Amino acid sequence: MDATIIAAPPSTKNKGKSRDTEMHQTKNGNQWYFGMKAHIGVDEVTGQVHHVTSTAANIADVTEVPNLLHGKERHVFGDAGYTGAQKRASKRGRKFWIAAKRSVVKAIEDPKLREITEQLEHAKASIRAAVEHPFRVLKRQFGYVKVRYKGLAKNGAQVTTLFALVNLWMARRALLQAT
């Protein structure tokens, strides 16, 4: 599971002289963004998106965990934004593999323990990398980097449709070989 920020026009040059009231701003790294977040749940084997939710950009990633799980997963991988996810979602035989924050890893004083922890984090990141592929297709192949409508409902519907198309795009080779 992961999330990406999709920008909204920050301009106030309209009749109401206001921004979209359903979009909010958030800080990612040292950069501020105004818009919405698209949260996805991805199958770890196929890389296909199985759940999509849309929220304002200021909503924490961890709050969407119950909406991104289908119930049959045995392992759940997430970045540091999902710290505490196991407390929010029903465990039901799931193992949560949430990335440790960099500051926590750097604070480990024992060099051997730090090296082992870094190797574990690298292994978790390698698996989590598959979740980033649908975002690349959405933003680079389809060019969806900015919302097209006002409000979360319309934009959420469009994002859901686009992720269905992302699944087809990512499975295109297997689909063509099957014919």
From TrEMBL:
<dbReference type="GO" id="GO:0004803">
    <property type="term" value="F:transposase activity"/>
</dbReference>
<feature type="region of interest" description="Disordered">
    <location>
        <begin position="1"/>
        <end position="23"/>
    </location>
</feature>
<dbReference type="GO" id="GO:0006313">
    <property type="term" value="P:DNA transposition"/>
</dbReference>
<protein>
    <submittedName>
        <fullName>IS1479 transposase</fullName>
    </submittedName>
</protein>
<keyword id="KW-0238">DNA-binding</keyword>
<keyword id="KW-0233">DNA recombination</keyword>
<dbReference type="Pfam" id="PF01609">
    <property type="entry name" value="DDE_Tnp_1"/>
</dbReference>
<dbReference type="InterPro" id="IPR047959">
    <property type="entry name" value="Transpos_IS5"/>
</dbReference>
<dbReference type="GO" id="GO:0003677">
    <property type="term" value="F:DNA binding"/>
</dbReference>
<dbReference type="InterPro" id="IPR002559">
    <property type="entry name" value="Transposase_11"/>
</dbReference>
<feature type="domain" description="Transposase IS4-like">
    <location>
        <begin position="1"/>
        <end position="168"/>
    </location>
</feature>
